Amino acid sequence: MSIKQGRRDLSSQEKRWKKPGMVRWYDPGLLAETGLYAGLSTMLGSMIDTRRFLQFEGSDDDCVIREYQGAEELWFDYAADIGDGWDATYTMAYLFSGPRLEPAGETLARGHFLVLGGDEVYPRASRDAYAKRLIWPFNQAGRNLGQMEPGGRTPNADHRRDIYCIPGNHDWYDGLAAFTRRFCNGRTIGSFRTRQRRSYFILKLPHNWELWGVDLQLNHDIDVAQLNFFRRQAETLVPGTRIILCLAEPDWVYGERSEEDLHWNIERFERMAEKSGSKIVLELAGDIHNYQRYEGTRTPGGGYASHPQTKIVSGGGGAFLHPTHSFSMEKEFPEGFKCENRYPGAGTSLWLSLGNLFFAFRNPGFSALLGAVYAALFWSMPTADFGWRFPLTHPGSASLILVLFLVLWQFSDFRTRWQNGLWGLVHTACHVSAAYLVWRWLPAVLPGDLPWIVPRTAIFAAGSLAGGTVFGIYLLLSLNLFRIHENEAFSSLRIPHHKHFLRFHLTQEGLRLFVVAADRTAPEDGEHPVPIKIIERRTIGGA
Ligand SMILES: [Fe+2]
Known about the structure:
CATH superfamily of the largest domain: Metallo-dependent phosphatases
Largest sheet: 9 strands, mixed
CATH topology of the largest domain: Purple Acid Phosphatase, chain A, domain 2
Number of domains: 2
Distance between the termini: 36 Å
Structural class: alpha/beta
Shape: globular
Bound molecules: fe (ii) ion
CATH class of the largest domain: Alpha Beta
CATH architecture of the largest domain: 4-Layer Sandwich
Strand content: 15-25%
């Protein structure tokens, strides 16, 4: 089924590029840059909201796609959090683009369209990042499947399908500039073509179903123009319409875990639908890079409303894996939701978290930064008077320890300040102790007549190893004992495997969901890249 494509079909850029690996989140330069862009975009986003300009782009009708409505049956795909390492994104692009999937003897036809539910690129949106981390692997999948025109950059009309995207926070880090250029202008991505004119849309589906894609910007904010668009469209709903709501972030999860009032966004869409005698029967969100299916545990009444609502976290499109063992499936959310299934399993997730023991080797840049701190901590130590009190009595060392504590206090991820203070203090004490041991041990084992630079360099190197290891153990304990630092303890691992996406089949009988997963992603070799499996089959919302 696949055709290996020669280098002549690569664009001149692609010939020059090296395939990007998974983003190194702990690289000190990237940390500073991402922090800066995240801060700036959050601050400026409320003042200069790109959506205010987008509302003048086309009419409401341009944001309502009706052409799928008349179909007898419809296949479509949903994935979120893609555009990280090349291998993982290529693997998923190949699965979206292939004419069919045949896991375990079952045949799943290719989707008529693909919805990407946020975070289409990492670490932050830019023309280059989209081109290298999203478009290139999609183009290559199209080429290897023989779906592209000669030249390898535009899809053959027979193989072309539609793609719709809502932006996540990483797409917003440049104020949505690259997103609108890429996704709101009728351009192609591999064998897919963009259709939307704004960052939100409605897809009218057969058998009285609709899919609503909502742009939450940063800070879970829905602008007035967008809200009015959905209100106007909700007023025209045929009673009994069943709606799939796509948000970039699972507000129901974040609202619960951070105890903020994030349910408001979902509630107002639910009220809009109910006013017209319709109902949101399925909510999809990314941002958490794994699979979690939540089901309503209470039935509100008889008839149509008695179908329990399903909420799915599905962020397995290509970005680094997030843990699944860090939350309890026994817990019931106040609104009456419980997690019924997750992927990968908790055992796998727990096992993978042990990779943090090798943090120093996986994140050498950050570990070197810690090595520099270790070297600086005792830099002025008089060799003749080296006791444990030295760092507390020497002004330079004591100041550095104070700064280290303040940083680690801020970094700690508990809900209360005193917990963060306490855990930050323990973390700081571990680093200072490790630095002390390095400074005591290394000069003792090295020959005494070496130039001063040699032992200090050795201390920096040993400090990098020790500092990275202490930091990795801190993440490991934080995650597995206290269920905090879910993001930090897995972004450190940059795991490209255990990816999944949702394939839907809509017919008169209802909406059938297949959760397609790949335990491993593999380098592109021109063949079907990885074995896949279906981890779940369900009918959503009833007939
Ligand atoms: Fe993400």
